[in-house]
Design goal:
alpha/beta; 3 domains; Four Helix Bundle (Hemerythrin (Met), subunit A); Rossmann fold
């Protein structure tokens, strides 16, 4: 996400860095570049003007004009203003006592609202909250059935021990017509069930339209007045740019939303909605959708997002993802094997699988400081990881445990035939494996930030290979994560 915007920002800062000391004219020239980059990212015009005016006012101060590192100073200023533009941090879900907490999701059709209901339920499940999800969209064909399937997927996801249940009345869809009261009745019965069965949270998946109209707003108003939800979240498609901002503004004027959930931020979106929606609505961004899986809903942290936009990476989020997906005992055992140089093809495949559980390769690479320039060429690598697994799967157990056996050309030919790959592809994998094995041994004794520093110097194929090593690194418990967060913050302040 934000690739084009990040490239434009990086180019602007590099130009400033090459000037030594800078003048007022240089700052104004840089601001024009930033303004143009934001407009091309489909950021709201009023937001662009206000954002650039604030940066220019601060950048024209004596501190940056006399700085020996104007590019770094400018990056710092833009980072601060991006944080203020998208902030503050407010990703918690307000829970009431006695329960249930009623959360109403609203938004246009096609924004991913129903899928987001499931993701939010999965998020609450991981946090130990029993959740009931109500299908209140009775107009869109098969919406009730879609939500039921989504909730069933969350129930079997295996993450979290809390209960997630579905409340739907598909027979009411036939009665719907223009009768707003039918949807209200479904929501009221869901609330009654949530109270009697002692659910912590009730999520209402309300109806949407292709565009905002009076019928939609009357229905949403009816549900709001009848159930008095504790939180109203607006689901916004980040790919729709200023259209998303305009619809968000209209929803907020009528519904007074408490927060925004941005979806589809894993796509090649230009980022206009993410940078505009909070400024326009005043409602904080609560969560972002970064994939199709049930766990692909992240708490929104403006400081981390600003770091990604400016190519500074997001080490803290990367560590958190590793903690969620990498088994600690297995990682400790792997670290011990690496320190002894006992790295095998089986370990190699395990690390690839751990990496893929963390999310798309391009997204994970974007979290590593200084690797932003490498991710543009990674679109095809997900398929290559499939081929790597197929090649390793065509090896015998002895070959996977002892890679030196694969120096035999006959073995390479047999593996190539079995996996549908070519001989050069098998040899390329072997070279990558040897590089990873060597690097793994060198990095075995490093701390987390040391590993990140090692990754920073890699590009292209080396960066991809290094990420497979990164996926298997030990998180060694929450105390280590806290230490990484503190060190990262100190480094940013310097």
């Amino acid at each position: 996400m934000f690739n084009a915007l990040s490239d434009r920002f990086s180019k602007t800062f590099r130009n400033l860095s090459g000037r030594g000391r800078i003048s007022e004219a240089n700052v104004r020239e840089a601001m024009e570049e930033i303004r143009q980059a934001l407009l091309e990212a489909d950021v709201n015009l009023d937001v662009v003007n206000g954002f650039c005016d604030r940066i220019q006012k601060e950048a024209l101060g004596e501190e940056i004009l006399q700085s020996l590192k104007p590019g770094q100073q400018m990056t710092h200023i833009v980072h601060q203003q991006l944080v203020e533009l998208m902030g503050p941090v407010d990703s918690h879900v307000m829970l009431v006592d006695p329960p249930p907490t009623v959360i109403m999701l609203c938004g246009l059709q096609g924004t991913g609202k129903t899928t987001t209901c499931g993701k939010l339920a999965a998020y609450l499940k991981r946090n130990g909250r029993n959740t009931l999800v109500c299908a209140a969209d009775l107009q869109r064909p098969a919406a009730v059935e879609q939500l039921r399937v989504v909730v069933e997927g969350v129930q079997t996801s295996g993450k979290g021990n809390a209960q997630v249940a579905f409340h739907g009345e598909p027979d009411k869809c036939a009665e719907y017509g223009t009768a707003t009261g039918v949807a209200i009745g479904v929501c009221q019965r869901a609330l009654k069930r949530a109270r009697s069965e002692r659910f912590d949270v009730l999520i209402l998946d309300t109806a949407g339209r292709l565009h905002i109209d009076d019928d939609l707003m009357k229905e949403l108003d009816g549900v709001r007045y009848a159930l008095n939800p504790h939180q109203i979240y607006l689901v916004v498609d980040a790919m729709t740019g200023q259209d998303a901002v305009q619809s968000a503004s209209a929803f907020n004027d009528r519904m007074a939303v408490d927060g925004v959930i941005l979806t589809k931020l894993d796509s090649d979106t230009r980022g206009g909605a993410a940078l505009s929606v909070k400024e326009v609505t005043g409602a904080p961004i609560k969560f972002i959708g970064v994939g199709e899986g049930h766990d692909a809903l992240e708490e929104f942290h403006p400081e981390r997002m600003a770091g990604r936009i400016l190519g500074m990476g997001d080490v803290v989020s990367l560590v958190e993802k590793a903690q969620q997906e990498v088994d600690e005992e297995e990682a400790e055992a792997m670290a011990e094997r690496l320190s002894k140089g006992q790295f095998t093809m089986n370990d190699f495949v395990k690390q690839i699988r751990s990496l893929r559980r963390m999310g798309p390769l391009k997204q994970i690479m974007g979290m590593i400081p200084g690797v932003g320039s490498a991710i543009k060429n990674l679109d095809g690598h997900e398929g290559q990881l499939d081929r790597l697994e197929a090649i390793v799967g065509s090896m015998t157990n002895n070959e996977r445990e002892e890679a030196t056996l694969l120096k035999s050309k006959s073995r390479v030919r047999r593996i190539a035939r079995g996996s549908g790959a070519s001989g050069p592809e098998v040899n390329k994998l072997l070279k990558q494996f040897e590089m990873i094995k060597k690097m793994s041994t060198q990095m075995a004794g490093m701390g987390m930030l040391g590993k990140m520093k090692a990754m920073k110097g890699m590009q292209g194929e080396d960066a991809m290979a290094g990420m497979e090593q990164l996926a298997g690194m030990s998180t060694r418990g929450s105390t280590k994560t806290t230490s990484v967060k503190k060190k990262f913050k100190k480094r940013k302040r310097r």
